[in-house]
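Q: Hi! New to this. If I give you a protein sequence and the SMILES for zinc ion, can you show me the bound structure?
A: Yes, paste them in.
Q: Okay, here:
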Amino acid sequence: MDACFSAFDDDGDGFLNIHEFDSICKGLFRNDRGIVYSLDADRLEHIFSIFDTKKDGLIDRQEFVLCWDKWIKTIVRPVSVFLIIDVQNDFISGTLNISNCSAQQNGLEVIEPINQLLDTVNFDSVFYSYDWHPTDHISFIENLSLRKLDSSSPVSAEDAKPFDTVVFEGCPKIKQRLWPKHCIQDSWGAQLYKDLKVVDNAMKIYKGTVSDVDSYSVFWDNKKLSETTLCNQLANLNITDIYVCGLAYDVCVGATAADALSIGYRTILIDDCCRGVDVDDINLTKNSVIKNHGVIVQSHEVKAMVEGRDRRPELGYKLALELEKSIQNSKVKHIK
Ligand SMILES: [Zn+2]
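A: Thanks. Here is the predicted structure of the protein with zinc ion bound:
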């Protein structure tokens, strides 16, 4: 840390000014061929101000400790999880084959690039999620008669078709998109597709296991009433970066990426390892990931990122924003 500080303290005054900090960022944010990524001036200034905790326009050696320990070290040596979402028979060739949806995408096409990543990239952990429903699940159009629709439902039980959204009675009311029966617990349709590689020591996460609430995100159900074990497991593994992919792009992959970002993880969505339901919704998913400081990459870019040789400024900025929040929270606690 001291050597780094001294190396970038060009004028040797014992402080890093914004220009010297800019040189650190130019060293950090590069691809694996050494090409520097541009970091816009506003973001540079914002990151600098987060580490300039005394707000005197300079970073001293004491302030640099946080920058080094919590920011630079993570950027250079991230701890990465590969989260493969719902690559199950029913979504590829079963009852909810996504090729029958409006985007007409083929779920089978994610298998080869995902297997390639599993073969070539040394992720710190690999997780597979399963959509895993009881037979009376609320999301199945076949189960419409099991629950009463609220008078505010935009579609009646008689008129409802697959992929429509209805509102069920309840307190609170439950808005639910209707899907054909799929991924019944322990059925063939809920198994991972046979050609998907399953690595040793991988973790499995089951979601959508409760009858009366659907669960798109691998973190929480859609009402955030219950959570899976994923949050705790990632925290125990000291994960910093989440690589998400799988099926369906604009449903469970998108919801999981949104939650990963909201929790504060550096989140990377692997575009060519996802297939989805609706083209407009896929575009909304992509826009939301980018707006919330995640990145969207192709699978050939992943290896260098996991190995810390390709370091993206968006992810550095995201991490700085999370550190800013934790500094503010600790100040609030201190005042209390
Ligand atoms: Zn489902």
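A: The chain has three domains: 2-77+314-335, 80-136+181-307, 141-178. Let me know if you'd like me to explain how to read the tokens.
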